[in-house]
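Records of this kind hold a single protein each, on a pair of labelled lines. With that in mind, the following record should read easily:
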Amino acid sequence: MNPVKHQQEKEEEQQEHDRLVQQPAALLSRDAGVNVMADVGGNLGPPSVLNQVNPGGDWIKDRWQAASDMHGTEIKGKHWIEIDFFSLRDQDIAFWPAYAILDWETAVSTDYVIYGRRGLEDESHSWTVFFDSKKHAYETTTSGKSPGVKKDMPLHYVHNVTLKERLSPEAIKFGIHEEPKRIDAIRIVIRSSDHGWGVSLWQVDIYGIV
């Protein structure tokens, strides 16, 4: 490979990356062209409540919970939520993910991974890790008081997380640099519950650059 041409290509890739980073991210998930699905329906609102245009505050209807009853009995195992930006895909458009805001209920998880890929059903594209709560820093704010427990616990645990493509060990080892991946699907894999109840979310907002 021509070393001068290779260096020029790397510089162009970096310039494109810098351009993307400087663009303002837009809220993309609160849209009729976005579907939200989960591995379990739970006992409260359907997964579709997670991208309401105007998030509600009804403790029963406006949150999704991976529980089997009103005692919050946990449905065992890992759980996943998928956010499908099908309207963008239909237009052959993908986006660069910037950050996510997860509004957890009292049944919060601090043990989850956020993945992204191009094409929800296209198995030729692998899921890429953009955030792992056990490895990457994030901000948490709390508010409200849960009506479901006797002791004083917040009703909302809001996690503000940066979505950044995490290179594989092989890519890091060999110095592989690629243009940031654009995606049209998000998967959140929840590995465990903090308090032993079925995990519960009010809202998931995904911000990105189209």
